Amino acid sequence: MSYITVNPNPKRKSVGDCVVRALCVATDQDWDTVFLALCVKGYIEKDMPSSNEIWGSYLRENGFTRGIIPNTCPDCYTVKDFIKDHPTGTFVLGTGTHAIAVKEGQYYDTGDSGDEPIFYFYEKEN
Fold first, then answer.
1. Between the chain's N and C termini, which has fewer beta carbons within 10 Å?
2. Residue-number span of the structural domain to which 82 is assigned
3. Is 41 helix (H, G, I), strand (E, B) or coil?
4. How many folded domains does the chain comprise?
5. What's residue 14's pLDDT?
6. For residues 15 and 35, what is the distance between their CA atoms, to the nearest angstrom?
7. Please, are residues 109 and 5 in contact by the beta-carbon 8 Å criterion?
8. Helix crossing, 31-45 with 52-61: angle to 10°?
9. Within 10 A of 30 (CB to CB), how many other CB atoms are there?
10. Which pLDDT tens digit goes with each residue over 45-55?
11. Which residues lie across from 94 on neighbouring strands?
12. What is the pLDDT of residue 73?
């Protein structure tokens, strides 16, 4: 398991676009493509592009399914714990305020979010 610094934002900005950055990594799409798709979807649904409903819908349209973290320790199950339990596959993890991409046991973010507790995830179906 390892952390990989990544920022697909073309101008390397990193405020408020964690959803876009995570979805870029998870879907192998560039920042502009993901951002525009989320904006259009948000416009149609009259919701913000970064809302859980909008980006969750986008992931489902791109072959992901949603999973919930077991309730055994909902406040202490971290990104690192998740990766130990899911060493293969492609995921987007949600902390409630942040989104993190995971691919094949590595997590991708602009900062090391390995100790962040997660509450739900999306998994790419094969």
1. C
2. 2-124
3. helix
4. 1
5. 83
6. 14
7. yes
8. 120
9. 11
10. 999 999 999 99
11. 99, 120
12. 79
